[in-house]
């Protein structure tokens, strides 16, 4: 008999690309993850990882098994959720806090699928910036799960009782008006951007401080033409020719015409996305939602990749 816990751990190992990454996401030690994978290999009679002293590379059998495991685990969780509803429980509602650009991208893609509808989970959604949604996780708060981001290592804190799972990194892109005549995807140096007008975050915020330090490190002192913390507004102003901007990829997915993205090797910045949960980490509704979210984010360069 295959242990479903081991299948879920396998999915995390494949998703993160390492035992250590899966351990961080699940709250285990890397040794515990390794032991679970050894047990799964024994139970199935299949070699799932090519192990060496410094790495554990998934075999093709592991990849194939993970595809089937995702469906099996979703069915198990749906069964448990349905049983809880039939027993008079409140498993149908998930109270979710989520930041705007992720909500704009992920929720329409999730809510519109037949797979999500058949789970019978009702979402109660709070769309807000991370500092606001984290308040909903405090004792007596109104949230079960908060999806937040952090730029750099400062500016965001959560209660010690909250468990954290890293979802991945959302990379920032340098964007310019197409009317400026620079070819999309061009590689330029920070020096070439020095005299251009810029649209930046309002000064004094944690994100703005990180960006200021990054620009200073590559001797870029931008001429600020506008301050804006709304990425959609920044995209529209860029498209209209007002100035250059720094925008994360999630917000770029619905960018207007008239915007080009560049590669600036000196400017490498990402915001880390986390799932924060309070209470019972075995919450079926949270697991079902996170499984669906992971599928949606595949191919968007948000899924974390680590070496083992």
Describe the fold and architecture.
By secondary structure, this protein is α/β, with parallel strands linked by helices. The chain has eleven helices and eleven strands. The strands form two sheets. Strands 3, 4, 5, 6, 7, 8, 9, 10 and 11 form a nine-stranded mixed β-sheet that branches. It has a two-stranded antiparallel sheet with strand order 1-2. Helix 1 (4-16) packs across helix 2, helix 1 packs across helix 3 and helix 2 packs across helix 3 (30-44). The longest helix has 27 residues, at 60-86. The protein is globular and about 65 Å long. The chain starts with a helix and ends in an 11-residue tail after the last helix.
**Helix/strand/pairing category:** alpha/beta
Number of helices: 11
Which regions have little confidence, pLDDT < 50, spanning 5+ residues? Answer: 303-308
Count the beta strands.
11
**Beta-strand residue percentage:** 15-25%
How is the biggest beta sheet arranged?
A: 9 strands, mixed
Can you write the helix and strand succession as a string? HHHEEHEHHEHEEEHEHEHEEH
Radius of gyration, whole Å: 22 Å
Oligomer: single chain
Choose one word for the global shape.
globular
Determine the N-to-C terminus distance: 28 Å
The residue fraction in helices comes out at: 40-55%
Mean pLDDT: 85
């Amino acid at each position: 008999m295959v242990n479903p816990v081991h299948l879920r751990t396998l999915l995390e190992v494949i998703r993160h690309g390492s035992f250590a990454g899966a351990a961080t996401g699940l709250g285990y030690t890397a040794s515990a993850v390794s032991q679970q994978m050894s047990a799964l290999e024994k139970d199935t009679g299949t070699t799932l990882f090519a192990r060496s002293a410094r790495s554990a590379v998934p075999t093709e059998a592991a990849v194939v098994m993970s595809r089937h495991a995702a469906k099996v685990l979703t069915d198990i969780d749906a069964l448990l959720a349905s049983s809880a509803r039939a027993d008079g429980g409140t498993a149908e509602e998930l109270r979710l806090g989520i930041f705007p650009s992720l909500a704009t991208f992920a929720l329409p893609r999730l809510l519109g699928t037949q797979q999500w509808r058949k789970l019978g989970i009702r979402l109660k959604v709070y769309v807000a910036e991370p500092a606001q949604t984290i308040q909903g996780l405090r004792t007596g708060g109104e949230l079960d799960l908060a999806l937040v981001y952090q730029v750099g290592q400062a500016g965001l804190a959560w209660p010690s009782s909250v468990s954290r799972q890293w979802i991945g990194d959302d990379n920032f892109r340098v964007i310019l008006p197409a009317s400026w005549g620079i070819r999309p995807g061009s590689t330029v140096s920070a020096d070439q951007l020095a005299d251009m007008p810029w649209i930046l975050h309002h000064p004094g915020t944690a994100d703005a401080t990180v960006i200021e330090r990054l620009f200073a490190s590559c001797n870029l002192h931008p001429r600020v033409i506008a301050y804006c913390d709304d990425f959609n507004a920044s995209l529209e102003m860029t498209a209209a020719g007002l100035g250059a901007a720094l925008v994360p990829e999630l917000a770029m997915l619905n960018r207007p015409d008239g915007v080009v993205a560049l590669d600036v090797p000196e400017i490498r910045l990402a915001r880390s996305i986390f799932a924060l949960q309070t209470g019972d980490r075995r919450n079926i509704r949270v697991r079902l939602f996170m499984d669906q979210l992971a599928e949606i984010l595949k191919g968007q360069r948000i899924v974390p990749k680590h070496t083992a």
